[in-house]
Amino acid sequence: MAGERAVAESVFELLMFEAFRVAREAPGGDGGEDGASAEARRMEVKGRIEAMGFDVGYRKVERSATEKLLGRHPLELIKFICKDLWLALFQKQADRLQTNHRGMFVLNDGNFTWLKRLGHRTDEKSVAMAEHILDFACGILRGALTNLGLSTAVYAEIKELPGVSFTVKVK
Amino acid sequence: MASRSAQRAGDVAWARTPKVNGELFALTYGAMVKRLVEDYTEIDEVNEQLEKMGYNIGIRLVDEFLAKAGLPPCQGFQETAEVIAKVAFRMFLGVAADVTSWNSEATAFSLLLADNPLAEFVELPRQYKTLCYSNVLCGVVRGALEMVSEEMRSLGLG
Predict the structure, then answer these.
(1) Interface contact A10-B64, CB threshold 8 A
(2) Predicted interface score ipTM higher than 0.85
């Protein structure tokens, strides 16, 4: 995947965390005290972060192999994601890909780069941060696949930090 | 510190820095700016949010700079300017900036970034001409300098 320019990893991470803060502090919507509003607010933040990821993923694949990949079998597109996109985003390839050959794919990464900094912390703030990071990543994957012609639902699960598994369901 | 040795320090620091894809960085920034523009009706508000964001980044980034750049304290504001432009910008953004337009009192200068990683592939529609797209960078510099000058005050260096 093209894009020879690079920036410091720390700068990107700090920017990403600030983007999450922006999503959390966005104006509009009532920050109510009761549980229901808090949950609604949480989902709203989640949606905003996922949407930002979608924009990133959609544009990220725009200049790369879109032409030669459009119309290809979903498995080929997912493999592209596991290799090329993963390399560009996380400096490594995904570790393992599983599929039921009926539109469901599970992408496993035993050492998810973006969760490295969190270590094995389980305090509330770290857990929230991990959630934001994964929502963002899911959005990126969904955006990339959309631009490659595949409409999907993507969600992530932490499998013993820093391992993550992403489930992609083709719609 | 002469400009050339600052440049060399910048190159060395950059070579040692763990890096990520620049496009990912630019796209993340762009996605966030887009959200801010949607959230705030006034462009001035967006500019302010970007600066504030930069400030939050700068106050944290400066620790890494001090630890990794391996430089002695700056002797004067002119040196500070060179270090920001040639070392800091280089080691974090991959591109050095140029110091220009000093005022007569030598209390203010401009940083010229000819090659801006944030603006890669970005086109601003006409209605956003008052948007300072890269305002985050101003905040970063402000935050970083504020931390350094605070440190200097506490050490009694004035």
Answers:
(1) yes
(2) yes
